[in-house]
UniProtKB/TrEMBL annotation:
<keyword id="KW-0479">Metal-binding</keyword>
<dbReference type="InterPro" id="IPR036424">
    <property type="entry name" value="UPP_synth-like_sf"/>
</dbReference>
<comment type="subunit">
    <text>Homodimer.</text>
</comment>
<feature type="binding site">
    <location>
        <begin position="66"/>
        <end position="68"/>
    </location>
    <ligand>
        <name>substrate</name>
    </ligand>
</feature>
<protein>
    <recommendedName>
        <fullName>Isoprenyl transferase</fullName>
        <ecNumber>2.5.1.-</ecNumber>
    </recommendedName>
</protein>
<feature type="binding site">
    <location>
        <position position="38"/>
    </location>
    <ligand>
        <name>substrate</name>
    </ligand>
</feature>
<feature type="active site" description="Proton acceptor">
    <location>
        <position position="69"/>
    </location>
</feature>
<dbReference type="Pfam" id="PF01255">
    <property type="entry name" value="Prenyltransf"/>
</dbReference>
<dbReference type="GO" id="GO:0008834">
    <property type="term" value="F:ditrans,polycis-undecaprenyl-diphosphate synthase [(2E,6E)-farnesyl-diphosphate specific] activity"/>
</dbReference>
<comment type="function">
    <text>Catalyzes the condensation of isopentenyl diphosphate (IPP) with allylic pyrophosphates generating different type of terpenoids.</text>
</comment>
<feature type="binding site">
    <location>
        <begin position="195"/>
        <end position="197"/>
    </location>
    <ligand>
        <name>substrate</name>
    </ligand>
</feature>
<feature type="binding site">
    <location>
        <position position="21"/>
    </location>
    <ligand>
        <name>Mg(2+)</name>
    </ligand>
</feature>
<feature type="active site">
    <location>
        <position position="21"/>
    </location>
</feature>
<feature type="binding site">
    <location>
        <position position="34"/>
    </location>
    <ligand>
        <name>substrate</name>
    </ligand>
</feature>
<keyword id="KW-0460">Magnesium</keyword>
<feature type="binding site">
    <location>
        <position position="26"/>
    </location>
    <ligand>
        <name>substrate</name>
    </ligand>
</feature>
<feature type="binding site">
    <location>
        <position position="208"/>
    </location>
    <ligand>
        <name>Mg(2+)</name>
    </ligand>
</feature>
Length: 253
């Protein structure tokens, strides 16, 4: 049985988050400028999103541009923004064909006007698609998201529309950029780095973390299947014991 057949018969992660790392190193290996790596990253994006959608994953969230990425050389920042704008537009027919609903999280008002307009248009034209939600994290940082969430909640308390004792996990969830997404089940980071880099810290509280040496532009469906296979063969205990989980499993089978 091939890998795809094996993973199809097992529990599929509902929400996969990806830290797409290694574009610069991929380009450097070929003696090219860093942006060459970013341009060659789009095939990997398609493979990951369509691959995940075909096996029934409901949401894929990509770390496309962090709050810290604004500190990169202006030339690279501009090139990334242009790439984002052009590729979003170009992909619309494929989004429609494959039922991809586009979504975005982050401090989106930081984006250049043209990129933001295009993003809003693409979100609007794909809003009734239901096969998979593809979220771009743009000018995103988890600490910024949590800080902004605290401010929103504090304002509601101050205005008297929220009781301080009513603040719980769900209220926090509702005030995060990801309020319309389930928690992350599986986080994949490419290029051999083993860090979270300020990504979805609240949402990944119980996520399985998968690190691969593959550089992002080389990432293909088979790499996604390997990550899912690893996820399926780990035991997610959510704070319980293995024995408790075995008991629950027996009751449901
Ligand atoms: C990390 O590689 C990648 C980024 C900071 C940008 C991610 C952008 C893309 C994948 C381009 C496609 C964008 C979309 C979603 C349309 P790096 O530059 O940090 O690589 P390095 O660690 O090897 O230098």
């Amino acid at each position: 049985m091939n890998l795809l057949e094996q993973i199809k018969n097992n529990k599929i992660p509902k929400h996969i988050a990806i830290i797409m790392d290694g574009n610069g190193r991929w380009a450097k290996k070929q003696g090219m400028a860093r942006i060459f790596g970013h341009r060659n990253a789009l095939t990997a994006v398609r493979e990951a999103v369509i691959g995940a959608s075909e096996i029934g994953t409901e949401a894929v969230t990509l770390y496309a541009f962090s709050t810290e990425n604004w500190n990169r050389p202006k030339l690279e920042v501009d090139a990334l923004m242009t790439l984002l704008t052009k590729s979003l537009k170009k992909e619309v027919p494929d989004f429609q064909k494959n039922g991809v609903k586009v979504n975005a999280i982050g401090r989106l008002t930081d984006l250049p006007k043209k990129a933001l307009e295009t993003l809003k248009e693409v979100i609007d034209v794909t809003k009734t698609n239901t096969k998979i939600t593809l979220t771009f994290s743009l000018s995103y940082g988890s600490r910024e998201e949590i800080t902004s969430c605290i401010k929103k909640i504090a304002t509601k308390v101050k205005e008297g529309v929220l009781d301080i004792n009513a603040i719980n996990d769900n209220v926090v969830h509702q005030n995060l950029y990801t309020h319309n997404l389930p928690d992350v089940d599986l986080m994949i980071r490419t290029s051999g780095e083993q860090r979270l880099s300020n990504y979805l810290l609240w949402q990944m509280a119980y996520a399985e973390l998968y690190f691969t040496d593959v550089l992002w532009p080389d990432f293909r469906r088979e790499d996604l299947y390997k990550a899912i296979y690893t996820y399926q063969n780990r035991e997610r205990r959510f704070g319980k014991t293995s024995e408790q989980l075995d008991g629950e499993h027996e009751q449901t089978t």
